[in-house]
Design brief:
By secondary structure, this protein is mainly beta. It has strands at residues 3-7, 10-12, 18-25, 34-39, 46-51, 58-60, 68-73, 78-83, 92-97, 108-112. It has no helices and 10 strands.
Length: 114
């Protein structure tokens, strides 16, 4: 059974940083690309960042490029999103998943506000 457990969110002031982690189980993590998604209030879910199965290739949404970094640890089956220079518009529920994944975790709330 696929499980995705996001952690590390919270309330942070503009300009601050947060590090999100996603613990996975129930599938062969090392052969899948992984993504971080987010769903802002009243909006559709969107892709934030993608990392290849080996970790050698990363892609970012234009809105987070240069501020967010996605990484993974295939030995620990985890994927991480380091978020710096946070802005109020980064406020959302953040999720991790495979690009073709149908099962979703509960997500983690990130709120950027003064």
């Amino acid at each position: 059974q696929v499980q995705l457990v996001e952690s590390g969110g919270g309330l942070v002031q503009p300009g601050g940083s947060l590090r999100l982690s996603c613990a996975t189980s129930g599938f062969t993590f090392s052969i899948y690309a992984m993504r971080w998604y987010r769903q802002p209030p009243e909006k559709e879910r969107e892709v934030v960042a993608t990392i290849s199965s080996s970790g050698g290739t990363t892609l970012y949404a234009d809105s987070v490029k240069g501020r967010f970094t996605i990484s993974r640890d295939n030995a620990k089956n985890t994927v991480t999103l380091q978020m710096n220079s946070l802005k109020p518009e980064d406020t959302a529920i953040y999720y991790c998943n495979r690009p073709t994944g149908n099962n979703w975790g509960q997500g983690i709330q990130v709120t950027v506000s003064s």
